[in-house]
Amino acid sequence: MNDKRRACLFIQPCKGQTERDREKDVNDRQLENSSANAPLILDVVAFGLSIVGLCFVEFSRLFFIPTTIKEMSSTTTTTTTNIKRDDTRLSNQIRPIESEQALLNKADGSAKFSQGKSSVLAAVYGPIDVKTARKEKISKSVVDVSFTPATGNTTYFDKEREMLVRNAVESIILTLLHPRTQINVIVQVYSNDGSIISCAINACCLALLDAGIELNCLISSITLSFTHDNQIYLDPTQKEENNSKGLAVYAINSKSEIVMTKTTGIIGESLYFQGLNIAKQSCEKVSAYTRLAVRNRIMGDQTQPSTTTTNTNNTLVEESKDKEMKDSS
Ligand SMILES: *[C@@H]1O[C@H](CO)[C@@H](O)[C@H](O)[C@H]1NC(C)=O
Ligand SMILES: *[C@@H]1O[C@H](CO)[C@@H](O)[C@H](O)[C@H]1NC(C)=O
Ligand SMILES: *[C@@H]1O[C@H](CO)[C@@H](O)[C@H](O)[C@H]1NC(C)=O
């Protein structure tokens, strides 16, 4: 009976509608009419708020030029049920992302990329002359990546990470443009709290953009951990990685081609492909972040008074003013 009544509200016209129901309907409509002049006030308030918001955005552009954008709580709604994790994230949430570009003076480009407590600095030097002739390639430039852990000597695992990062990064660089040269990418881990390969690849992409190296497309990477009760956790911390039964690292470029994947542990085929879908969506979000970070940096430079272009323009303006003064006198 109750269900029938509820259905009536949605499907019009309704035969089973009683007199009282119709009265209620009319009353409801009158209520709607009486509040008809409210939207005008709301509009005015909303307009005011949007202006305040715009001003704030402009101000933040002026003052926070090293892009530190804290956001990125991806809302990828997939088949995974939303179980709270230790750090109160949902299973499909990325940790807050932060980045900073051009930190190093001597490098051609550099970027620091943090996902939660995992933080990596990447520096790009090049294209430069090849130091060891043995490495030189006649038709293209050589991409050399070195991966340095936060503490201790480089181990076998770091060499493996280095190789994975190199493979991922080389795929997006247009190496044919600079034959017989070398592009060095230095990856220094500040702190490792899981998903470090992904964090390193994301840092490299931003650093390459900062260095102005010609790229095919962008690349972004995400790590997934598979728990023993078949949950998929996005962007796991070190603890979650330790407690998982399997890990998968995906690097996907902005044409949504899979550039690199690496799995450890035992993961079923269906889980792997389920993970791949989640990774594709998340990588798009990371790429969007990278674009935003670069755009903000470029916009920031325009408003900065100390950049070379504005300086020359200022001097030009001053000179012309001087001329005018002389002419008038
Ligand atoms: C790290 O490398 C240095 C030099 O190769 C060596 O002397 C040192 O014992 C190494 N440390 C560890 C913890 O292996
Ligand atoms: C994870 O495991 C590694 C060794 O496998 C250990 O050194 C590290 O302390 C562990 N981290 C956490 C947070 O459990
Ligand atoms: C600065 O000068 C360049 C050329 O000298 C010109 O194209 C540009 O529009 C100028 N910018 C401003 C803000 O005046």
TrEMBL record:
Lineage: superkingdom: Eukaryota
UniProt GO molecular function: RNA binding
Keywords: Exosome, Membrane, Nucleus, rRNA processing, Transmembrane, Transmembrane helix
Annotated localization: Nucleus
Ranges where the Exoribonuclease phosphorolytic domain occurs: 93-214, 218-281
Feature: compositional bias, Basic and acidic residues: 318-329
Positions of transmembrane segments: 40-64
One GO term of the biological process aspect: poly(A)-dependent snoRNA 3'-end processing
SUPFAM superfamilies reported for this sequence: Ribonuclease PH domain 2-like, Ribosomal protein S5 domain 2-like
A GO-annotated cellular component: nucleolus
Region (Disordered): 300-329
Family: Belongs to the RNase PH family.
Name of the protein in question: Uncharacterized protein
Organism, as annotated: Cavenderia fasciculata
